[in-house]
Description:
Elements: E1 4-5, H1 16-20, E2 24-25, H2 28-40, E3 45-49, E4 57-58, E5 61-62, H3 63-76, E6 83-87, H4 96-104, E7 111-113, H5 121-127, H6 133-146, E8 151-158, H7 165-178, E9 182-187, H8 205-228, E10 234-242, E11 249-254, E12 259-263, E13 272-281, E14 284-289
Parallel strand pairs: 3-6, 7-8, 8-9, 12-14
Antiparallel strand pairs: 1-2, 4-5, 10-11, 10-13, 11-12, 13-14
Helix pairs in contact: 2-3, 3-4, 7-8
Amino acid sequence: xxxxxxxxNFCTYCIVPYVRGRELSRPVEEILKEIDVLSGYGVREITLxxxxxxxxxxxxxxxxxxxxxxxxRIKETxxxxxxxRFMSSHPKDLSDEVIKVISEEEVLCHHIHLPVQHGSxxxxxxxxxxxxxxxxxxxVEKIRKAIPDVSLTTDLMMGFPGETEEDVEDTLSLMxxxxxxxxxxxxxxxxxxxxxxxxxxxxxxxxxxxxLQRVIxxxxxxxxxxxxxxxxxxxxxxxxxxxxxxxxxxxxxxxxDERVAFKADKxxxxxxxxxxxxxxxxxxxxxTML
Length: 290
């Protein structure tokens, strides 16, 4: 469900504000009516979309109050919707109010995609991200204190103009500090019409690829380490489809946006079930439905 369009942030590498315009938020009632329609179809999970959902603002409602009104509407109407997700979040705008609502409302998933983009304060400033490395780490600590079982994912961009080896090390150390469950990782691509496209200190593509590979290799290690901690847990799972590996198995998703395969009848597709996580196979848990 799109809740807003456009972006006001003007990160120096990004073309979005130029092609999609300034932020425009949809009215709360319009969003709630769309949720009611989807509930009528038996939809089980929705994702609220925006270039920066945290800056949602419509007739005095901010993102925290929108989340609260959505949670209340789902409860009042006994909706089929069991989970609400959102993306993407700009770290500078993720408020204490939003963290509090997520911690209090059962329907809001304990998974936050929080794009950091880089681990160096110097590079973040050049990107016009408007937070420092220290700001970001403090925000993550606040989130984890309020929502202990939260899973955090992120975006990481390597090879931004002027990036040094020291900046790369800052990113690797940030990853080790935060321990993201997963990340979307890529190298900087020049976009005509953006300020960063005019910077003189562009990084050669071979160097960008080498730096990106180091980030990918580290994240794979951290992902495995973080997911292994969940083995043995009993979790709520939304059954989504038959597993590609076996017709006797279903593939589902946890509240933390992790995949789980387990033996179950096809009739459970579209249902929430309880699964004990027995093991980890790659990036997919294997479990037993209880």
